[in-house]
Structures are given as structure tokens and as C-alpha cells.
Amino acid sequence: MAAAAELTLLEKSLGLSKGNKYSAQGERQIPVLQTNNGPSLTGLTTIAAHLVKQANKEYLLGSTAEEKAIVQQWLEYRVTRVDGHSNKEDIRTLLKDLNSYLEDKVYLTGYNFTLADILLYYGLHRFIVSIVSFFSVMFRMIFL
Amino acid sequence: MRLFVSEGAPGSLPVLAAAGRAQGRAELLISTVGPEECVVPFLTRPKVPVLQLDSGNYLFSTSAICRYFFLLSGWEQDDLTNQWLEWEATELQPALSAALYYLVVQGKKGEDVLGPVRRALTHIDQSLSRRSCPFLAGETESLADVVLWGALYPLLQDPAYLPEELGALHSWFQTLSSQEPCQRAAETVLKQQGVLALRPYLQKQPQPGSFEGRAVSNEPEEEELATLSEEEITMAVTAWEKGLESLPPLRPQQNPVLPVPGERNVLITSALPYVNNVPHLGNIIGCVLSADVFARYSRLRQWNTLYLCGTDEYGTATETKAMEEGLTPQEICDKYHAIHANIYRWFNISFDIFGRTTTPQQTKITQDIFQRLLTRGFVLEDTVEQLRCERCARFLADRFVEGVCPFCGYEEARGDQCDKCGKLINAIELKKPQCKVCRSCPVVKSSRHLFLDLPKLEKRLEEWLGKTLPGSDWTPNARFIIRSWLRDGLKPRCITRDLKWGTPVPLEGFEDKVFYVWFDATIGYLSITANYTDQWERWWKNPEQVNLYQFMAKDNVPFHGLVFPCSALGAEDNYTLVSHLIATEYLNYEDGKFSKSRGVGVFGDMAQDTGIPADIWRFYLLYIRPEGQDSAFSWTDMLLKNNSELLNNLGNFINRAGMFVSKFFGGYVPEMVLTSDDRRLVAHVTLELQHYHQLLEKVRIREALRSILTISRHGNQYIQVNEPWKRIKGSEADRQRAGTVTGLAVNIAALLSVMLQPYMPTVSATIQAQLQLPLPACSILLTNFLCTLPAGHQIGTVSPLFQKLENDQIESLRQRFGGGQAQVPPMPAVVEAAATAAPRQVQVLMDEVARQGNIVRELKAQKADKNQVAAEVAKLLDLKKQLALAEGKPLETPKGKKKK
């Protein structure tokens, strides 16, 4: 899924009515958002966090310092590790790690649903079609 | 909290710096683990540094750990910081780990190391200099700075890998490196071994993936290409192929220029500079230069254009100046009018008329408007209490009185305003008032004056604004100023003064008074036009056919947007009123204000003695034009913009394009067979050109200049990717490709020469002469990119367009204009100026030498890093050199060890 489409989807689920237009930059097609009252914002997680604030749903960025840092950590994980994987082996390791991390958790921060869950879900979406072993993780993320 | 680190793991640097900076270090337990130890239970691969929180959670991302420390200290997350951290993780880190691996593990050097990170470093540098903030996310150092500094430190602490031309990056890096938390982190992690300290860790890491495949472009990321549809590409290519044919015939030069029914008639004025002062760079960019760009652009569009300006010569300030210099007011005006005219001539301002306000036409038109207002009942009479100096036998206008401020007690408050508390003063309220001329104490006398009844005209004004403003290009600041005046309600304005040097008031009982600038300065535009052509009314009483653009700094908005329109509306004579009022904000000088009296800043007449060509001044002033917000002139930035944008970007591209034609194709433009990539480029250039037009039509001068630089960047990239210099030596097909690339590039250069014309007219003409660009193509700019140099066209001799500005040259200019220059004799050459520098400057330099000397001694005593000592010694030597120059002494030879 292209980053722009992903952000549009995010806007919808955040209840933002006025859809933004995104351009894409460079070979990796990094999304760029031209905001009305300032310079443009570049980068998937940067824009996503901006949208969350726009929708007045700051709680999706975590409420304590610890949660906030954890959310950002997984957002970074999404754009570096999930998007940056180079081969099947990488994907396997990544899913294994995630599975092990989520063993005793409902969401990435523990018990609170955050932006990190949304973006990681989007990022992993394309893998689950081919990899059945990942099903349990996704199951939990979708239904709980 | 427990922090797990490993010997030589680069991530420890930002983490420790952030902990120190956010005072999180105290509660931190630090454990050192081996580079292959798995600390985080759920991660398959080892990762350090890792922060284990008291809750048991792990933070395994370096940025997240730093962020956590900052969050703990009360910092709040913001978009800009997020953006920097995301960029750091996705763009900088891959590049940087490749560079560090090559350097530390593989022992590579130079460009092999710098290559992968150059683009990222440039990006930081440009962001810093573009926003002209000292730090990445604003005025103060914050999370983004610490994370990026920590990532970059191992590489950049070696001066070999901190490119000199990236000045903004350089000073940002030095500032952070000198801070205590950063210094301590650097000592702990690198242990004074430099980058080699990272070896134990890095050599256990897998080799980073090949980096070359990722980023080939050397462009700032903001300027990546937009997506284009097939139709857009086809349309652009069709227009390109039509070439010179699509140019309309040149419109014949008229003299005088008069409006033509059915055409777009553009009348442009720039605020009339006050005659008694030499304009500084801020005055120049604020009105004349901005208006000049628009006038030149308007002519390139073949719009029927008249651009006028002149000196505003009446008023108290002229009388004061005349007294100071022992001349008559008329002599002062003649003298300074010539100075102004010369300055603008040097800056290549393309006035159709540069007139003056002290003419019979001014009297005639002003008195006519006044009579009409009087007849229609828009003039009031009232008595005003004023200070009168009995010794000089005259009423003292605001600037002729000084005294003690009634609000703050400041001793040298002027009659209209206190310089200390900034409050507006009514001159009769001054305590201990003094006549500025004879220093005797004036008395309060009443004097009769005339007022323009603005409240009575307010409704007409609002009606007119209601029709004019929507859809016009009035700048937001102008709209705001007018709105706030109207909101406060208009009051009657005094339009007469007890002076001699002015337009006489044609009314019985007012023979010894003149009109005040509030009333007659803006009428100067009309009288100046009247002195140019007796058909001036075709411009000024023709609102249906004339588009009036008025350029000024924001302090002039009330005169042009309010007072003159009221006079004109009240006079009921179908005057042309301003359609687009273009007001700039203020330009500061370095960190402060321009000040004639303190000799701070560059003034119009001095710019020419700097040895820097007028076009470079124009370029830089327009690049920093205070459009939308105040901006500042900075010498360092000027050097940077000259060397990066003009020399390396624009000049380099145009020169290469021309050189390829000369060298590879005997000076004839080769045949071009466009591939789909070339067609796409044509479309992109067309798109950017259209963007340029959209911006300039809205008078967004500063932004439109960016479009020019963007096209030339695309051009450079196009040449770089296609390597015509290699292909020319290859097969037939390769040679044809080289031809196409060269041909397209030189046509882009031709287009740039025309787009550049409003900004840098001399450079533009030089390029056009070098390329032998056909005449109509030089003088007309359409909205499409055309092939104006078809195959077979012969170009002229190509030579470089710009010169590098050197650090020491700029440094000496900075010294020269940094204050105390008032003592320098007028128009000195660079060397003389330095030799006769003011005593204060010498003192400042001596202090600096002494301070720097201490720094060096301390460093040596501490046995500090060699590079650091060398850098400080270099600074010291440079200061000594400046001091010697300032004192006019020959350079001291280094003594040093011999003596001891």
C-alpha cells in the first residue's frame, strides 16, 4: 500500500473529514504533506502523528513519557525495519520478534491501543497474505 | 532505569548526551555488555544501547531513549522534531553506518567515506540556513539536535569529514560540540581515540547494504519531481517543439510609455526615498529593487509597463540637514538626488522615470487636489498648540525639539517619539524642551492648521476597499494595517506644517505654511509622471485601464492605502487608485538594525566599493527579501548563497551546458532526439516555469527565485545522470544521446537566462550573449518552455559567470560594516578602509585576541586534542591578522618558540 493511501485510510479512521493531498518524494516515495499554516511535513510517521493531533486524539500517541517513547519506538520500527526489510529471512525474524514481544501484551504499549498499532498493522498487512504463521499476531491485533 | 551500552557502540553518544542534557543521568545505572550480547529478550539480533525501564519495558531505539529522557524533563513532542528523528532513522542512519563502516572497518578515506553522507549533510546544512535558526527545531537546542549531533559526531569530529562549504552545519556542529553534556558523552564514548574507538563494535556488525543503489541524487529533498500525466508531458513537448515560432513579435518601444486601450497597462511605483539620507540595503530591497524585479518581469510578459520613482524632497528633515551641512535646502536636494540616482543606477534599477518632488508640477497638482477637497468640504481648520523658538523665529516641527521624556525621563527624547520607551509624545508635553538648532527654550504658542476630514471620507474609502481588496494581491501585512486603522476609526489628519521648505498652501491666512508629507508626498508619483509626459492623466485618471502596483516597506502603508485614496476619492476627479499594494517587512543587519549614526550596516553607496558585483547584491537581497516576515542580511549567508546557489548550482549548470556545445559540437547546438526521460524533463521544466509565473503574477518575488534555482538543479542532475562527456566518446548511438542531452541542457540554460533577467539583469545579458540567444527570445517569456536554440544554432564564447567569495574577504567586510564606519572617509577602497579602521574596532579586536590567546593556552595546558588546538590557533592567527590590518601595521611574523 502506498504511503499516501495509507495516510488517507488513517484520516478516515481518525474521523478527519477534510482529506489532505499527499505528494511522494524520491525513490522510496516518502509522503509529503503541505500544511496550510506552515512548512510541509515529510515522512509517514511524522505526518501520521500530525494527523492524530489534528483529530484531537493525542491519546493515540501515548499518555505517559514511557508510553510516548514506546509508541515512537514502534513507529520507527515500522519505517526502518518493516519497510526496510531486504529479504524473506528478515521478515521471518521480524515476525518472530513481534510475536514474542506481543506474547503477554494486548497492544504494543501493553493495554492501550495507539498509533503504533495502526501503522504496524498497515505495514504488516502485505505479509500476512503469504505467511500463515503470522496469523495469531494479526488475530490479536484485529479482534482485541 | 538501567542503560546497557557496549564499547564503541555509536548509539551511546546521543543517549549519554541526552541523559546529561535532560539531567536523567543521576538515576541511571549503566551496564556494559559485549557487542554480541542479547539484552532485549524478544529481539533475535543483539542491539545496544538499550534502556530497561523500571516497569520492565525496554527501549531499544536510540532516538526513543533520547526522546524518553527529554520527555521526562518536561519537553513536549512537536512535528518538526518528529520529522527530524524520522529522517535520522530512515535517511541519515543508513548513510552514516555505511560511511562509518568504510572508514573504521575497511580503512577507506576521503570521498569513499564522505560520498554516502554528503547528501544528508547538505540537507541539514540547507535546512539550518534556510530557516536561519541556530538549531534544527528552533531557537534553542533540543532533542533533534542531540540525536543528530550524537549520530554525526564520530564522523564530523574529524575536520576532514566536515565539508567547509557547509557553513551552517559547521557552526551548528561546533556549538553543540562545545556544550558540556555533549563533550562529556564524547569523552566517555570515544575516549580521545577519535572514530577508531568505534572499531570493537563496528567490526562485529554485518557490512551495511550497498549504499549506492539508494540515493543517486544530490538534490535537496524538497525539490523532488512531481508526478506528471501523459497529457501534460505531450502538451509540454508540443509547445517545446514549436520553438521560436510561437514567440509573438516584440512590442515596439514607446516614448513616452502611455496606456493602450485593450492592453494590460501596468503602472509601478516604488516608495519615494527621503532625499536627506543615503538608502541602506533594507530601503533598497523594500521598494526600488522589489519594484524593479516586478517591472522587468512585467516587460518580459509584454505588458505595457511604466515604472517610476523619485526622491521625496520636502520637509523638516531636509531643512535640518541643510542647516547641518551649511547649504540651502535646494542644494541639499540637488546633492542627494544625484547620490540616490547614482546608487540606483549602479544597482541597475530600470526606472522609466526617476524624478523629484520639488517641481512646479508638484505644486500645481497638490494645490489642485487641495482646492477640490476644500470646495467639497473635506478640509477642517483647527488650532494647535505648538512649540515656537523665539530666537529662530519659527514653530518647531517634531524633529526640531528635544527634551526629557514625560513618561520615562529619558533625556534625549525627540518631539514625536521617545527612543528609549518608544512612546509617542506630543511635543508640548516634553519636559525641558530645547530647540535643536539654537538650544534655547521654546515657548508654547498656538498655530492654526488645516486637517483632512478623514472621518467624513471613511465610508467612501471602505466602499472602494470593498471593491478593490477581494482577489487583489495586496500583501497580508498591508491589509492588516489598513484594517486596524479602520477598526480604530479614522481621525482628522493635520496636513499643514509651519515650515518653509514645502508646497505652499494656497489659502488666505496660511501663506507662511506648507503642506505636510502626509498630504503631498504620495502626490509626488503624479507630479513625477507629469514631468515625464504632459499626458500624465492618461495614467493617473484612468482607473479602468490602469493596474497600479505600489511597492513600499510596511511603515508606508497608511499613506498609500488610506490617506492618498481618501484625498483622491474626496477630490472626485477619477484618480487611478492602487490596485495592488505590496509591502515588505523589515530587513535587519546581521543581528541588529541598520544604523546610519552608528555606522552599522551596508548603505547603497558603499555596496559598490565592496568589489562584489551589483547582480550578486541583487540576488542575495532578493533571496532574503523580507516577504511575509522580517529577515536579516548576513555576510556569512551571502557567501554561502553565492558559493552554493550561484557558483555551484546555477553558474555551474549554465557553464557546463555551454561548454559541452563548444567542446563537443564545435559551438553548434546538436540534433536532439527526445527520449521519454527527456520529454519528462521538458514537462518538469515547463511546470516549474509555470510555477514561477504564478508566483511573480502574485508578486511573490522571493519564492519565484527558488523556481529558477530548482530548474538549474534539475539541469545539473540531468547532466550528471546522462554523462554526455563519456557518451561523446562512445558509439554512434551514445554520441547522439550526448547531443540530445547537451542540446536540451543548453536550451534550459537559455530559458534560465530569461527567467533570471528580472533578478540579475547583467548576468542574464551575459548568458544571452554567450549563447547568442535570438533577440525576441531574450525579451519575451512565455508560459511554456520553448526550444529557442534549435539544432545548428551557433553559440558564442562561453566563460564562467560567477566568482567564489572567500571567507577572509567576507570577514573583512563584516568587520568594516560592523560599526564605527561612520569615521571612515566616504567611498574608501577595501584596503584603505581596513587601514583606517575606527579605534573602537581596534580595541574590540585587541580584546578578542587576548581572549582567544587564553583559550589556546588553556587547551595546550590541558593537552587537548591536536585538531582542536590547531583550530583555535588558526582563529587566533586570523584575529591577529585582522588586528594588524585594523591598526594599519604590517603583519607580525609568528614568534612562538624562538623566544622561549
Automatic annotation (TrEMBL), chain A:
Residues 50-144 form the GST C-terminal domain. Gene3D superfamilies: 1.20.1050.10, 3.40.30.90. One of its GO terms (cellular component) is aminoacyl-tRNA synthetase multienzyme complex. PANTHER family: EUKARYOTIC TRANSLATION ELONGATION FACTOR 1 EPSILON-1. Positive modulator of ATM response to DNA damage. Part of a multisubunit complex that groups tRNA ligases for Arg (RARS1), Asp (DARS1), Gln (QARS1), Ile (IARS1), Leu (LARS1), Lys (KARS1), Met (MARS1) the bifunctional ligase for Glu and Pro (EPRS1) and the auxiliary subunits AIMP1/p43, AIMP2/p38 and EEF1E1/p18. Can interact simultaneously with MARS1 and EPRS1. Forms a linear complex that contains MARS1, EEF1E1, EPRS1 and AIMP2 that is at the core of the multisubunit complex. Interacts with ATM and ATR. This is Eukaryotic translation elongation factor 1 epsilon-1. It comes from Neovison vison (American mink).
Automatic annotation (TrEMBL), chain B:
One of its GO terms (biological process) is cellular response to epidermal growth factor stimulus. It is found in: Cytoplasm, Cytosol; Nucleus, Nucleolus. One of its GO terms (molecular function) is methionine-tRNA ligase activity. It catalyses: tRNA(Met) + L-methionine + ATP = L-methionyl-tRNA(Met) + AMP + diphosphate. Residues 74-210 form the GST C-terminal domain. GO terms for cellular component: aminoacyl-tRNA synthetase multienzyme complex; cytosol; nucleolus. Residues 841-897 form the WHEP-TRS domain. CDD domains: Anticodon_Ia_Met (cd07957), GST_C_MetRS_N (cd10307), MetRS_core (cd00814), MetRS_RNA (cd00939). It comes from the Eukaryota. It holds the Pfam family tRNA-synt_1g. InterPro entries: aa-tRNA-synth_I_CS, Anticodon_Met, Glutathione-S-Trfase_C-like, Glutathione-S-Trfase_C_sf, GST_C, MARS_N, Met-tRNA_ligase_1, Met-tRNA_synth. Keywords: Aminoacyl-tRNA synthetase, ATP-binding, Cytoplasm, Ligase, Nucleotide-binding, Nucleus, Protein biosynthesis, RNA-binding, tRNA-binding. Its EC number is 6.1.1.10. Catalyzes the specific attachment of an amino acid to its cognate tRNA in a 2 step reaction: the amino acid (AA) is first activated by ATP to form AA-AMP and then transferred to the acceptor end of the tRNA. Plays a role in the synthesis of ribosomal RNA in the nucleolus. HAMAP family: Met_tRNA_synth_type1. Belongs to the class-I aminoacyl-tRNA synthetase family. PANTHER family: METHIONINE--TRNA LIGASE, METHIONINE--TRNA LIGASE, CYTOPLASMIC. This is Methionine--tRNA ligase, cytoplasmic.
